[in-house]
Automatic annotation (TrEMBL):
One example GO MF annotation: methyltransferase activity
PANTHER family hit by this protein: TRNA (CYTOSINE(38)-C(5))-METHYLTRANSFERASE
Lineage top rank: taxon: Eukaryota
Protein name per UniProt: tRNA (cytosine(38)-C(5))-methyltransferase
GO CC terms in record: nucleus
InterPro entries cross-referenced by the UniProt entry: C5-MTase (IPR050750), C5_MeTfrase (IPR001525), C5_meth_CS (IPR031303), SAM-dependent_MTases_sf (IPR029063)
Enzyme Commission numbers on file: 2.1.1.204
Segments passing through the bilayer: none
Annotated GO biological process: methylation
Amino acid sequence: MKFSQIESEHPQKYPIDAQDKIEKKKIETNICINSTTQSSGKDAILYKLETAEEVDRKHQQNSDLSVQMLKNFLEENIDMNPYFLPPKLLLRYALLLDIVKPTCRRSTCFTKGYGSYIEGTGSVLQTAEDVQIEDIYKSLTNLSQEEKITQLLMLKLRYFTPKEIANLLGFPPEFGFPEKITVKQRYRLLGNSLNVHVVAKLIKILHE
């Protein structure tokens, strides 16, 4: 099993106003492009805070058929309501989120601040796969706060569960936490962890 992760910055210690970054940086796309889509960062729809190079890199990662899709690591038949991003966070940090779909083959690195901080702590999952993310972001211009929240909620963005992050890191299916360990503590314990399969291969090489 192979899965690529991208190192991210340390989570911010203080809230960051997304509007400040909009004024400083060109708004560009963060779309998860299907491997059959003939597009690149240079001609993708521009609507998020990323460079064309970042967009192109993510497109290439999602086109790598040797990497499993995220949907193969997701939990089923559990209550996901506690993991959905609340309206307040959606409104403030919408342009800073790294959004992926179950059909993506990439995510950013999950840090110990995941679930507590937004920027640079890990990707969020768009569960409304039939909604076009670029259409939602393009429609936010000149809307009231309430209208923006209504639009963003259509994406049904949620955090990955601790179990899903453990799956992505290569932990075995039977791996779990004691019930007394809170979700926040589980994120902290999993944050910045090494992939189990990568470590296993390195140890094997060292003993050969």
